[in-house]
Design a protein that fits this description.
Layout: H1 4-15, E1 26-28, H2 30-43, H3 53-65, H4 70-76, H5 80-98, E2 101-103, H6 104-117, H7 119-128, E3 132-134, H8 142-152, E4 158-160
Parallel strand pairs: 1-2, 3-4
Length: 170
Amino acid sequence: AGTFHSICVRILRRHIHLLDFDNSFTIYDSDDSKKTITACLKKLNLSDDIMAPSVLQNEISRLKEKGYTAEEFAQTASDFRESHISAVYTEYAKTLKQASALDFDDIILYTNILFDTYPDVLLKYQNQFEYILVDEYQDTNPSQSRLIEALAGDRQNVCVVGDDDQSIYS
């Protein structure tokens, strides 16, 4: 039993080396993330007048919640705003990896990537989690929903509890 993040951290601590990360990665909180984004802006010689670090942080978080890596988003960025976000996201992801760090959204994102890349690892956890119960389901984002579907596999033994009147995602 555990939260999405606590379960995924346990999975990543065992297997993230398969994605060329150190198993003893650090988890950045919101302040660490914002400082790193600010440093990325400086490194890229981009002004925070164009887009504030907190806005970039929210945009990158939103992309990760939808399951987009920096590389995937770079391929779809179509205007100045998206190109700006893409440049910062790419540098941010590179900086985190060099620091052997993940931010909060990476925990779910990289677990999904791990499962996509290594079906044998996914199978191990599908067998471990024969039944899945998700409380507060109305608050799950697309990445979390994708994780549930992957873990459920062919069994589809999933029970969710939620309240549409309390939904933070639409």
